[in-house]
Design brief:
Length: 253
């Protein structure tokens, strides 16, 4: 994998398979690029997928090695993303020289992945729809990414993500009425309001609500809750701003 860019990873459904998407979001700043209008996808059949269709750790290392070698061989072209689902690892890039890229892919695959089945697909994509509409995270995917960033921060502090505890959530709204209707909605879903703030001097004014689940939950289960909160805040004209909690270590009383 190229060391360039800003790579994020999220889980989602890819067709009928649950899988993982990794994408260089830095490229969105300049997308679409008229100088590289052809989308190329390189499919590698996973030799020993688990029941979820994903490779084991050893095979994943091989795939990472292939992508790193590919990125070096293709320089200055950059890989834009990859997906892993249904027993297939697919790597994506954009180019003008489809045939030349294909030859580099075949040569690199023969050297790094001699026992894997590798195929190449390409099509004209001047709008970069493959990148912007398929790979690039939507709002719920960004929520997954932000949640994982919080979990990683907790883990770095030695947190036990399986330990239930109070979880603090925050959402912002354009009016008191929006905030009030959201508070009523989350009360019906097992949450308790814990505080309000009003930024009257903000432009536009922001009305926040802090709230917690009535019962403690484990941070490791957070994905099951935040997607719903993201959508619910939007339904009430606001925006869910995320969550936080205290660190609980395995040896804490």
């Amino acid at each position: 994998m190229s060391a360039d860019g800003n790579w994020v990873t999220y889980a989602c459904w890819i067709g009928e398979d649950f899988g993982l998407v990794s994408v260089d979001v830095e490229l969105a700043e300049d997308a679409p690029r008229a100088d590289v209008p052809h989308s190329v996808s390189i499919e590698v059949a996973v030799r020993a997928p688990n029941e979820s269709g994903l490779p084991d750790a050893d095979e994943l290392d091989l795939l990472h090695g292939f992508e790193a070698a590919l990125a070096d061989a293709l320089d200055p072209l950059r890989l834009v993303g990859h997906t892993t689902a249904g027993g297939v690892r697919t790597t994506f890039l954009y180019t003008t020289e489809v045939e030349a890229v294909g030859e580099i892919v075949r040569t690199t695959a023969a050297r790094v992945l001699p026992e894997h089945e590798v195929s190449i697909q390409h099509f004209e994509d001047p709008a970069w729809e493959q990148y912007l509409e398929f790979l690039y995270p939507n709002k719920l995917a960004w929520r997954y990414i932000y949640d994982n960033a919080v979990l990683a921060s907790l883990q770095a502090e030695g947190d036990d993500s399986t330990a239930p505890r109070p979880i603090d959530h925050t959402a912002f709204f354009p009016s008191r009425d929006n905030r009030r209707s959201f508070a009523k909605a989350i009360e019906g879903e097992g949450y308790v309001a814990k505080g309000e703030t009003t930024g009257e001097g903000d432009a536009p004014p922001q009305f926040s609500l802090k709230f917690q689940p009535a019962e403690d939950i484990a941070p490791g289960d957070i994905h099951a809750f935040t997607e719903r909160l993201e959508l619910l805040a939007e339904e009430h004209g606001g925006a869910y701003d995320g969550w936080g909690c205290v660190v609980v270590k395995a040896d804490d009383d």
